[in-house]
Design brief:
It is a single chain. The chain is built from 11 helices and no strands. The chain is mainly alpha-helical and 198 residues long. The termini are far apart.
Length: 198
C-alpha cells in the first residue's frame, strides 16, 4: 500500500494534488498507482478541486489511464472522469480531447463498476443535447444499452433504461432493436452477468 505523499501542510490543496500526480507518474508500484488514482478520483468529487485538477492535467491522466490493461486503473480513471464531467469546463475538455471513444470502450469492461461509471459519464456528456455529439448515441452504444437493459444487475439495468429513455429518440431505439446483426453483441455484459429472458 502506498504511503501518503510527503507534503508540507502549509502547501495546501494544490500542493497535495501535485504530490499525488507526481507520485502517480514516478512510482513503479502497481498498488501505489492504483491507490493514487483512487485518491485523485475521490478528489474529483469536490467542485473546489476542479480548477486544480485541470491545472495539473489530471483529466489527461484519467483519459490516458482508460487505455491501461490494469482494470483497477481503468475503474478509477472512469470514476474520476464521471465525477469531473458534471462541470461544464471539464465536460468540454473531455469532449475536445477525444474522450468519447475511450469512454465507449469502457462499456466492454468485465468490471461492473467501470461499466456503470462509463454509462453515467456518457449521460453527463450527452446533457443537455446529445445531438451535438452523435457518437454518444451511435447505434452500437444504443444496442449496448439495450443489452444492459436485460442485465440481472438492477443498477446496470436501471441506468441503461434511463439512457435509452432520456438520451435516445424512440426511432433510434426502434432502429437498434430492428438490426439483424447488432454490433453490440461483441460487447459482453460485465462479469457474472447474463441477459434475462422474458
Amino acid at each position: 500500500m502506498a504511503q501518503k505523499p510527503k507534503v508540507d501542510p502549509h502547501v495546501g490543496r494544490l500542493g497535495y494534488l501535485q504530490a499525488l500526480v507526481t507520485e502517480f507518474q514516478e512510482t513503479q508500484s502497481r498498488d501505489a498507482k492504483e491507490q493514487v488514482l483512487a485518491n485523485l478520483a475521490n478528489f474529483a468529487y469536490d467542485p473546489n478541486n476542479y480548477q486544480y485538477l485541470r491545472q495539473l492535467q489530471v483529466l489527461d491522466l484519467f483519459l490516458d489511464s482508460l487505455s491501461e490493461e490494469n482494470e483497477t486503473l481503468v475503474e478509477f480513471a472512469i470514476g474520476g472522469l464521471c465525477n469531473l464531467c458534471a462541470d461544464r469546463a471539464n465536460k468540454e475538455y473531455i469532449l475536445q480531447a477525444g474522450g468519447i471513444p475511450l469512454i465507449i470502450n469502457c462499456l466492454s469492461s468485465p468490471n461492473e463498476e467501470t461499466v456503470l461509471s462509463a454509462v453515467t459519464t456518457l449521460m453527463y456528456l450527452s446533457s443537455p443535447r446529445p445531438s451535438s455529439h452523435p457518437e454518444l448515441t451511435s447505434m452500437p452504444v444504443i444496442q449496448c444499452m439495450l443489452r444492459f437493459s436485460l442485465s440481472t444487475s438492477t443498477r446496470l439495468q436501471n441506468l441503461a433504461h434511463i439512457f435509452l429513455q432520456d438520451f435516445c429518440s424512440p426511432s433510434q431505439v426502434a432502429e437498434a432493436r430492428s438490426w439483424q446483426a447488432p454490433s453490440a453483441l461483441g460487447i459482453p455484459l460485465p462479469r457474472n452477468e447474463a441477459p434475462q429472458h422474458p
